[in-house]
Specification:
The protein has helices at 2-11, 15-40, 43-65, 73-82, 86-94, 96-106, and strands spanning 68-69, 109-123, 128-140, 146-160, 163-171. By secondary structure, it is of the alpha+beta class. The protein has a 5-stranded antiparallel beta sheet with strand order 1-2-3-4-5. It starts with a helix and ends in a 9-residue tail after the last strand.
């Protein structure tokens, strides 16, 4: 009979360990949910998203403005204009005809490849950013000769219509050369 009593006792559930296990699981779920909510609503996350968007747009725009093929000039110049805004856009638009004639005469094909880039300044509220982009520009002349040149460009971006566009572009100073 003793054996039967032991078997019945062993088959009964033990409420304390089950309750502790349920509390631990509930606590883990609550902590994970709180952590997820906090990360999703963190201002730093939104800032990082804008920084990454500005960098991607800046790199692409700098590459666009350093790429042009005399055989498909209108498409290239349209891409230049769609990548820019403000005074830079106005300059490209007003000098388009003269520049197109120069490229047609020279019969060059220029391609650019971004080597690296960085956002050096970001004012998300004002919709302004600055980027530094290193790129390799290859110029192929009409006689087939190729020339590669590495350069660093400083670009200013302005957010217009929810998109980042170049509003200024210039060469970055190299080494100990003064800016200006």
């Amino acid at each position: 009979m003793t054996r039967a009593a032991r078997v019945r006792t062993a088959l009964r559930t033990r409420p304390l360990p089950a309750l502790l296990l349920a509390l631990a699981a509930g606590g883990c779920a609550a902590w994970t949910g709180y952590d997820w909510y906090r990360a999703a609503h963190d201002d730093r996350t939104a800032y990082a998203v804008q920084r990454d968007a500005a960098l991607a747009a800046g790199e692409q725009a700098v590459q666009n403005l350093n790429t042009l093929d005399h055989r498909d000039l209108n498409q290239g110049l349209d891409l230049w204009e769609s990548s820019t805004t403000g005074e830079l856009h106005d300059q490209l638009e007003s000098g388009r005809t003269e520049f197109a004639e120069q490229v047609k005469t020279a019969k060059t094909v220029t391609t650019a490849r971004v080597l690296s880039g960085a956002v050096t300044e970001l004012d998300d509220r004002a919709g302004r950013a600055r980027v530094l982009v290193a790129l390799r520009v290859t110029v192929k002349a009409s006689d087939g000769a190729k020339t590669d040149k590495d350069s660093r460009m400083l670009g200013e971006l302005t957010r217009t219509g929810g998109r980042w566009k170049l509003s200024a572009l210039g060469q970055a100073p190299v080494g100990g050369a003064p800016a200006g």
